[in-house]
Amino acid sequence: MPIKCLVIALAGNPNAGKTTVFNNLTGTRQKVGNWPGVTVEKKEGHVSRNGYDLTIVDLPGTYSLTPFSIEEVVARNYLLDERPDVVIDIIDASNLERSLYLATQIRELDCKVLFALNMADIAGSRGTKIDAPKLSELLDVPVVFTVGNRKEGMDDLLQQAIELAESATPAARTRQVKYSHDIEEAIGRLQEFMEMKAGGMPYDTRWMAIKLLEDDKIVKERLVAAAPETGRQILQAAQALRTHLTQRFDEDPQIVMTDERYGFIAGIIREVQSATVQQRVDISRNIDLVLTHRLFGFPIFVFFIWAMFQLTFTLGEYPVQWIGAGVDGLSGAVGAALPEGILRSLLVDGVVAGVGSVIKFLPNILVLFFCIALFEDTGYMARSAFLMDRIMHLIGLHGKSFIPMLMGFGCNVPAIMAARTLESEKDRILTILITPFMSCSAKLPVYVILAGAFFGAQAGTVIFGIYLLGVVLSIVTGRIFRSTLLKGADAPFVMELPPYRMPMAKSLLIHMWDRSKLFLQKMGKVILVGSIVIWSLSNFPRDVATSRDYAAEIARVTATADSQKATADGSERRRIEEQAAQAVSDLRREQMAEQTRQSYIGRIGRFVAPIFAPLGIDWQGGVALLSGFVAKEIVVSTLGVLHAAGESDEEGALGKALIAAGMTPLSALSMMVFVLLYLPCLATTAAIRRETSTRWMVFSIGYSTAVAWGMAFVVYQGGRLFGFS
Predict the structure, then answer these.
(1) Residue 620 confidence (pLDDT) above 70
(2) 111/80 Cα distance (integer angstroms)
(3) Residue span of the structural domain in which 36 resides
(4) What's the pLDDT band for 285 if we cut at 50, 70, 90?
(5) Could you tell me if 411 and 518 are in contact, meaning their C-beta atoms sit under 8 angstroms apart?
(6) Would 171 be classed as within a structural domain?
(7) Would the pLDDT of 714 be above 90?
(8) Quick one: 524 and 553 in the same domain?
(9) What is the CATH number for 262?
(10) Beta bridge partners of 88
């Protein structure tokens, strides 16, 4: 028997547990991309069950299908145009009234719907009891209880979806929302007019009539595009009916219909929901008494952020050393297997040194993304926005803008795209302009190298200070922009605080891996190519004249050591060998440094050196910062190539090479500040342009780089003024 394919769409409100259910159903068999034509994330997963190949599509979380936001447009268009076999609406059982609003809109689309009453345990803990059979009877939809974070009800959910998809019964047309007499009469008249004028409409005529009475712009555009002349006649009829209803109710028909939907929902809730005699304690509310406390909430939040970065550095230190040892071993093996020459140099000094100097920090990236996923899955991310509301009002924004900024600690690209959830255009632009000051995970390897080499046990605190500086400067910048370029009134802050949930290990790992694999993809693309380019620029031209005959000096040191060893005993012979090896290593390093200074990249470095000299950054550091425009991880790989860190078997070879090159703790701190603030990477720059305009993109590049130079100058020159080095 051939395998049958079914498409199941998951819809639901934000924070209803839809992503958790999706992860439970699909596991790691997920494909993440963007919806066609928009930058909203698209998730698909595949699962086989009872001879069926099921494609699970995770629609963007929305509160309604009214096309105000891009997420609502994407979700509705998919349901209308793709016509999935079944739509599973994930309903928050602890907040039934709010969830049923979206559910009633989905049912009006005339598709096969299955309700998943998720978080039933939370509803029970609040003393709420839901009569699922009664709800199923009233709305004529199958209902399944689920507890996403415990994987309860998942098998039953898929089985019910398969049975519903295979049932011969068409999608229910009964027991939909029944509006008041005047509204229903207007719907009927417009529906009849459409059927008489146009015959086969692209969508259900009742649904189209409702949308036209609600003045839905997208439906109007599609109607005119499908049938220009007839469409305009239908729109005229719809406008006449809207005018009649407005006069009848003294209110916009859309508002009237929304109120009547809620009235319909209220009637359902009275029938299916009841409170038990003994109400249990609302744990989330009690936790919020502490974590969102007026005085203690913000210090606790700062502590959590500090702990995240301290954990990122300390916990990730050990696997970093292990991976580093593996990279050093690979470098030594490749060097031993190949003869001296350009190919050996390319592989050892270019590929291994460049990519290896970055990939060893994968554990730090994993820990950081795990912590961010923990904030999201527990519900604390929304609390952070609530806590930051008062501070964000200083720059004319509200706490909701802090969520994209906090996401920026992971990656600025999705953080900038997340700003589209803000209603005001000025709020969106302002949030996008200050988000790059949030230090993304790509900058973390630079901090770890420099802080680890120059600040030792205080490295975690120094890194936290760098991140905190980015937050402070984003607030200052926001205040300046709100007072000058983007003047506007403070936006009100209304944001739901979802209940705290026990995070699922599987969900955390999936979120962590989804974000971290982008880091790995850069290894095989941007960073590999970048490392080869940097190696090429630093190794050509080959025939450069050096100030000394290094080959002759190395041969002389080797010959002298051989003659001395012939007359020495065991311990003395080892001492001579070690001294000779060190002398040869120093000569080769000096030779490479001189050749690099005369290479193409050395010429570029000397050209830009005057720009970075006041910041305490040498020409190698200047070249590394220039290469960071492509991707910030390349800063580390460039330093690794320029300082020939791939040739050393020592632990922390790059850090030691930087110290040997004359970098000081103060210049290292200056460089970290510059990396924090200067122009965003190529992908982030493209995202800024896509979400705003070319003009704002150019402004962001210029402004952030100017701020970076100024702050690094203050740090370095101010530190020297106070006697630091």
Answers:
(1) yes
(2) 9
(3) 4-166
(4) confident
(5) yes
(6) no
(7) yes
(8) no
(9) 1.10.287.1770
(10) 10, 114
- Going by C-alpha positions, the residue among 350, 375, 618 that lies closest to residue 503 is 375
Q: Report yes or no on 657 lying in a domain.
A: yes
Contact 13, 61 (CB under 8 A): yes
The two tokens of residue 617 are 């950054």
Please compute Rg for the chain using Cα positions.
31
DSSP 49-82: ETTEEEEEEEPPP-S-SSTTSHHHHHHHHIIIII
Tokens of 129: 């009891």
Q: What is the pLDDT of residues 463-475, one digit of tens each?
A: 889 989 998 898 8
pLDDT at 649 over 50: no
Give the DSSP H or E segment for 459: helix 459-483
Q: Could you give the CA distance from residue 287 to residue 26 in angstroms, rounded to a whole number?
A: 32
Q: Which residue has the tokens 């701190």?
A: 669
**In terms of domains, do 415 and 521 share one?**
yes
The pTM of the full predicted model, rounded to 2 decimals, is 0.58
Amino acid 401 reads S
Task: Indicate if 318 and 193 belong to the same structural domain.
Answer: no
pLDDT at 301 > cutoff 80:
yes
Tell me the three-class secondary structure of 479-532, residue by residue: HHHHHCCCCCCCCCCCCCCCCCCCCCHHHHHHHHHHHHHHHHHHHHHHHHHHHH
What is the three-class DSSP state of 11? strand
Sign of the C-alpha dihedral, residues 215, 220, 223, 227?
Answer: positive
Tell me, what's the pLDDT at 494?
47
Q: Please, which residues bridge with residue 274 across strands?
A: 129
Choose among 477, 513, 472, 428: nearest CA to 28. 513
Same domain, 377 and 265: no
Q: What domain count does the chain have?
A: 4
Q: Do 330 and 197 share a structural domain? A: no
Enter the tokens of residue 99. 């969830």
Residue 12, CA distances (Å) to 15, 19, 64, 102 in order: 9, 10, 9, 7
Lowest mean pLDDT among 32-41, 176-185, 513-522: 32-41
Answer yes or no: do 621 and 485 share one domain: yes
Give the model's pLDDT for residue 352: 80
Give the helix/strand (H/E) hosting 197.
helix 181-198
365 and 356 Cβ atoms separated by less than 8 Å: no
Alpha carbons 468 and 441: distance in angstroms, whole number: 14
Q: In this structure, is the dihedral angle defined by the CA atoms of residues 528, 531, 537 and 542, taken in order, positive or negative? A: negative
